[in-house]
Design goal:
Length: about 250
């Protein structure tokens, strides 16, 4: 496979991409995509590559060339047995050199029959899987998005995420781990790239009424993490319920 050169790339705005996802019982999922590249000044001979991905699984498709784009055709997702938390990348590749000219990451599809405003995804997608090999009941998977993996032996995903244990113990602990990972890395103070998981979480903290972490040389931001988690716990309101139910079970 030709290697891609990732230097000097342009960012494609997600407002210029529309992915429609269709999945009916007994049929393979499929999607159609419309990409508007008119205002990017990209060479007409450049290749348009679409990648659908979910955790470690992915498929690649071609939409032809920038000058002759094949928009709005149905493409089959034969390698996916479910479409939970499916995301898409759009890559514009210089055919001769393999140079990556433009990129959009973490594009959210719109499910058939749903309005775009009704199809907003959770800040922390949850997926059930077998975690026996890790010896834990939950862990975080860092990819384009951060996904919370929960042990499938705990029961159905919907049942688990509604439980007091999940809301009072697992979710705050997962948030603490994510924010601790975030402050050890670089982040964008301008919060421009909303496809970046660090930007998504910083925006989430701000929505909770929190501040931005300190980028100062000697800042450890531990208090910032504590405050953000406290705000989440207060918003969820499950802490006291969990304590009361726990005491009832003990006595």
């Amino acid at each position: 496979m030709k290697r891609f050169n990732y230097t000097g790339r342009m960012r494609i705005l997600q407002t210029d991409i529309h992915v429609s996802l269709n999945h009916h019982e007994g049929q393979l999922p499929n999607f159609s995509i419309v990409v508007d590249l008119e205002n990017y000044g990209l060479p007409a001979e450049s290749l348009i590559i679409i990648e659908a991905y979910q955790s470690t699984r992915w498929m690649r498709f071609s939409l032809g060339k920038v000058g002759l784009i094949q928009n709005d055709i149905k493409l089959e997702l034969s390698d996916f047995d479910d479409v939970d938390h499916l995301r898409f990348r759009v890559k514009i590749i210089e055919e001769e050199t393999g140079k990556l000219l433009a990129l959009a990451n973490g594009v959210h599809p719109i499910t058939e029959g749903e309005d775009i405003n009704e199809n907003q995804k959770s800040i922390l997608p949850v997926r059930s899987t077998d975690l026996a090999g890790y010896g834990v009941c939950w862990k975080l998977d860092y990819n384009e998005d951060v996904t919370l993996l929960i042990e499938k032996g705990l029961g159905g995903k919907e049942q688990v995420v509604r439980s007091d244990i999940f809301k009072s113990l697992i979710l705050p602990s997962a948030m603490r781990e994510i924010l601790n990972c975030l402050i050890k890395d670089e982040w964008d103070d301008e919060l421009d790239d909303t496809s970046d998981w660090k930007t998504k979480w910083l925006l989430f903290v701000k929505q909770l009424g929190g501040s931005m972490p300190d980028k100062g040389k000697d800042a450890d931001n531990i208090d910032w993490v504590d405050e953000a988690v406290r705000r989440l716990v207060d918003k969820m309101g499950n802490r006291n319920v969990f304590i009361e139910n726990f005491e009832e079970r003990i006595w």
